[in-house]
Amino acid sequence: MSDQTKMLDVVVVGAGFSGMYLIIKLRELGMTYTVLEQGDDVGGTWYWNRYPGARCDIPTIEYSYSFDDELEQSWDWQELMAAQPEILGYANHVADRYDLREDIRFNTAVVSAEYQEDGSFWKVVAASGEEFASRFLVMATGCLSVPNWPDIPGRDDYQGRVIHTGLWPHEPVDFSGLKVGIVGTGSSAVQSIPEIAQTAETLYVFQRTPVYTFPAGNHELTDEFRQDIKTRYADIREMQRSSMAGMALYGVMGRLQDIADVNIKDLSDAERRERLAEEGLPSIRRYPDVMVDLEANEIACELYREYIREVVEDEDAAESLLPLGYPIGCKRQVIDIGYYEAFNQDNVCLVDLRKEALQNINQAGIQTTAQQYDLDVLVYATGFDAMTGALTAVDIRGRDGLALKEKWQDGPRSYLGLQVAGFPNMFTVTGPGSPSVLSNMICSIEQHCDWIADGLEYLRANELQTIEAKEGSEDAWVKHVNEVADGTMLTTPSCASWYLGVNIPGKPRVFMPYVGGVGAYRDHCAAIAAEGYKGFELG
Ligand code: FAD
Ligand code: N01
Fold first, then answer.
1. What is the largest CA-CA distance in the chain?
2. How far apart are CA 82 and CA 54, in angstroms?
3. Rounded distance from Cα 518 to ligand 1 centre (Å)
4. Residue 158 backbone phi and psi in degrees, to 5
5. pLDDT given for residue 62 in this prediction
6. What is the DSSP letter of 350?
7. Closest C-alpha residue for ligand 1 atom 30
8. Nearest CA to ligand 2 atom 18
9. Rounded to the nearest 5°, which phi and psi values hold at 60?
10. Is 428 in the pocket of ligand 1 (CB under 6 A)?
């Protein structure tokens, strides 16, 4: 490290909504800092995921910052669940409004971060070799920011165009007249398939596991609604902060309402169908027992399968699209606009990999056990190395040279999803062990960044240099995280979700986010701070 390297108070890695808000907080504290971002602009998720159809799956008026009334008043959301360009536009609006870019070093990928016990600081190294030194390190690197490229034999032999939904080009991709293959049927595929199908000559959908997906119910917002919201933001934010999932669902109650007043098992078949007809497909996942009782869940699944058979005209395609063998609610909810309807188009062809396995990729396309599919474009909608991927991709070393990757080889361990024992003065935003991906992320991001900033202020006010999670408190928290997830659909043995890490070969099957709810978690974090950062070693 050169003698000239300036010692900063904080290095932040990542300039998505987390890193952007941290700038606001660090400015308030008057600290010295820099934000390092591998991309060339702000927005994180919404900067990278530009695939057609990408949009929010929760009401976007709530998927927005709450820290400044004037910011809330300055932005008009156009749709209930905004599409990617609108959300990226919002991120740019925030960056412009607060001149955030001046504090961000773009095109700077961090490759390592090592805690220097002699001097108690972090040495952070970028891919360019540039070095940074800071007392605190905040990893705002995102939970869904490392695309998963499955290791399919022959993957690199393919000669056509390859695109990952999570690394979509900035310029529009024209699929007209092209044979397109898409691998995967998770959220990204479900959103992009109806859009790509509009122009592709043929769209082959390579499906390994059929998905449960529910109609989005998206619509444009009226001026009246926007004006109403602007008078109610304060109440809405309060409701979000004390809720289970960081959402007040203002103006959409009844349609997106979380819990029904009755168990599905307590209704007759006729009553279930009546409710389904009245309230629509999303209602089947709102019965309290559906989320905790596999028998009740199977009743809902059967109603779901009937719905597919009604919508999809081709009987073979409909049968192939039926999710079987795992419950509704074990994976991240998927919502769609015209997903099943797309399979009624002549140019959309479902390739059921349960019937014809994907053998290999070759120069021309994809070979299954049944036939060769020649493709002009191959789209990977194969997801992410979620929650831990961006953290373990950086060579992070704490006390005694302990590598985070090593510490987490049997699954992530963290106190509150905010700090890892053995890694002093390092914080993770929406890390494993926090509500994170089970919540409205912006609500959780703000809570984490506020908590971190308050912690930094507390250390300064008390002339303390270091904060580090204690091993014992980390153990107790990990145990608690597991206990609350046990018995829910999220951890049921038949579930193969990225919440459990099973989408990445070799990743241990460990449930990563905290299911105890945003409100309860928030109170817990606040109580810990109020008790002088109980469970943390301050030095
Ligand atoms: P990110 O937005 O992922 O930003 C992290 C940044 O860190 C990235 O810009 C990345 O380039 C950078 N970075 C990572 N590693 C390094 C490194 N080593 N060096 C330098 N820079 C690095 N959440 C919701 O609550 N509601 C939704 O509707 C919703 N929709 C989503 C749709 C998609 C397609 C995806 C992929 C995710 C969605 N999410 C949603 C989750 C979303 O990730 C969060 O809401 C939120 O945007 C995360 O912000 P972040 O700043 O924490 O992380
Ligand atoms: O990724 P996924 P995603 N051969 O992991 C398949 C957020 N998000 O990008 O299930 C064949 O869900 C895999 O099949 P299987 C949201 O949190 C939100 O779609 O493993 N197929 C699966 O079908 C979401 O949950 C929105 O059998 C292979 C798919 O690829 C998260 O991001 C929109 C394969 C991956 O699905 C990730 O979603 C988009 C292989 N070798 C994303 N490997 C909103 O709507 C993988 N697959 C807000």
1. 77
2. 9
3. 19
4. -60, 135
5. 97
6. E
7. 56
8. 187
9. -75, -20
10. no
Minimum CA distance residue for ligand 2 atom 1: 383
Q: Atom of ligand 1 at shortest distance to CA of 45? A: 2
Q: How confident is the model at residue 462 (pLDDT cuts 50, 70, 90)?
A: very high
State which amino acid sits at residue 379.
V
Q: Average pLDDT, whole number, for the chain?
A: 96
Q: How confident is the model at residue 253 (pLDDT cuts 50, 70, 90)?
A: low
Of 177, 232, 184, 236, nearest in space to 210 by CA: 184
Residues near 461 by beta carbon (within 8 Å), at least 6 away in sequence:
none
- pLDDT of 485 strictly over 90: yes
Secondary structure element (H or E) that encloses residue 114, with its range: strand 110-116
Asked if the model's pLDDT at residue 251 lies above 80, the reply is: no
Residue-by-residue DSSP string for 377-441: EEEE---B-TTTHHHHTSEEE-GGG-BHHHHTTTS---BTTTB-TT-TTEEETT-TTSSGGGS-H
CA 480–ligand 1 middle distance (angstroms): 26
State residue 254's pLDDT score.
Answer: 46
Q: Write phi, then psi, for 211 (nearest 5 degrees).
A: -105, 155
Going by CA atoms, what residue is nearest to atom 25 of ligand 2?
Answer: 332
Instruction: Give the distance (Å) from ligand 2 centre to CA of residue 187.
Output: 6
- CATH, domain range 7-145+385-464: 3.50.50.60
Q: Tell me the average pLDDT across 488-496.
A: 93
Under the banding of pLDDT at 50, 70 and 90, the label for residue 255 is very low
Report the C-alpha gap between 25 and 509 in whole angstroms.
35
Phi-psi map region of 301: left, alpha, beta (phi>0 left; psi -120 to 50 alpha): alpha
Q: Is the CB of 38 under 6 A from ligand 1?
A: yes
Model pLDDT, residue 259: 62
What integer pLDDT is reported at residue 261 of this predicted model?
80
pTM of the model: 0.97
Q: Which helix (H) or strand (E) holds 452?
A: helix 441-461
pLDDT over 90 (residue 2) = no
387-398 average pLDDT score: 98
Where exactly are the structural domains of the chain?
A: 7-145+385-464
184 lines ligand 1 (CB under 6 A): no
Distance 50 CA to ligand 1 centre (A): 13
pLDDT tens, position by position, 507-526:
999 999 999 999 999 999 99
Relative orientation angle of helices 269-279 and 294-311, to the nearest 10 degrees: 60
Q: Is the CB of 49 under 6 A from ligand 1?
A: yes
CA 174 from chain center: how many Å? 27
Ligand 2 lining (C-beta closer than 6 Å): 56-57, 144, 150, 152, 165, 183-189, 191, 206, 208-209, 332, 335, 353, 358, 381-384, 437, 498, 503
Q: Which of 13, 45, 168 to mutate to test the pocket of ligand 1 (most atoms within 8 A of CB)?
A: 45
| Residue 489, CA distances (Å) to 189, 290, 332, 359, 443 in order | 23, 9, 11, 32, 24
Helix (H), strand (E) at residue 121: strand 121-126
| CB 54 less than 6 A from any atom of ligand 1 | yes
Section 277-285 average pLDDT: 89
